Amino acid sequence: MSQTKRNHYLPQTYLKHFLHEDHLFVYMKGEKFFNADFNIERRILGVKGEEGLKNIGLENRLYDPGVEGIKPNDIEEIFQAYGEDTYDSLINTLEDIPLGGAISRELKWQVATFMAAMRVRTPLFKAEIEQMDEAVQKHLLAMEFGRMTPEEVQSFYRDQIGKDMTLELATSVQRGFAEKTYKFDYPNGHFIKYALLMLEHHAHIFNAFNIRVLRTEKIFFYTSDNPVVYFVPRERINAYVSPRTLMSPYTELFFPLSKNLCVVGNRRGSPDEMVKATIEYADICNLNIACQSNEYIFAPFKTNRLDKYIENYIPFPFVFRVS
Q1: pTM (2 decimals)?
Q2: Nearest-CA neighbor of 284 among 237, 207, 216, 225?
Q3: Average pLDDT of 292-296?
């Protein structure tokens, strides 16, 4: 019997840096946890030690491309090479930088590279890639077939396939294209292809941001199953600038490195440096990290501020649409 392949989309190497007194609390806020099997108490899971992290951030067969000769572990090893193997050293180096100290180019590239891997290796990125492709394909098909009459659909099918289609079926097909009431089924290889293609692309984008690494000891940072957070502030959104783009001059970027360190990025020309985070600014980081989580939030401590995510289902705030 073949063994089920399980893949770490959030590596232990990363999550262990959010342990506090050897504990991590998992807030399960995904839609699948809001059913009769999960009461509110079951939506918080306490994890003890690095050993307990082995079952966190896993998705069965996530990196299985379904291609002969390529194993899921081969894909995961690529992500490891993009920063995971040297992450402990990176955190130690950052922690040694004094407040006001500069982040070197080499160190910034290491941070950007790891962020890129953490952006594209998650189930949310897979869902987004499929959502965007499906939205575009449905729009194009609606433009082509949704405007046809059922009789024209019959004629097209006969010309292309060489078979007849009943008028009733043609009417149903035409309505389905027009109203977009169907789903695409994507092979895993589709996600993996885009993840690998976008790895270095994202690394260069993140490296182009001006970054500050916030350090705090009075309040800890959260992380989530979507740890790379970015958005355009509401007042900057218009017909040309979407709410969620990495390319706008107004984009704000957040990435929690550990419970004590968080990257904050923008394009306002600020120096790349280590700064002390006020409690208020750390709260802003945590708010954005929690808001853009997908199904899980990971916190070094229990906090009432995260209770709203397990009391009521709060979905990921961005959906890709084609008008």
Answers
A1: 0.91
A2: 216
A3: 96
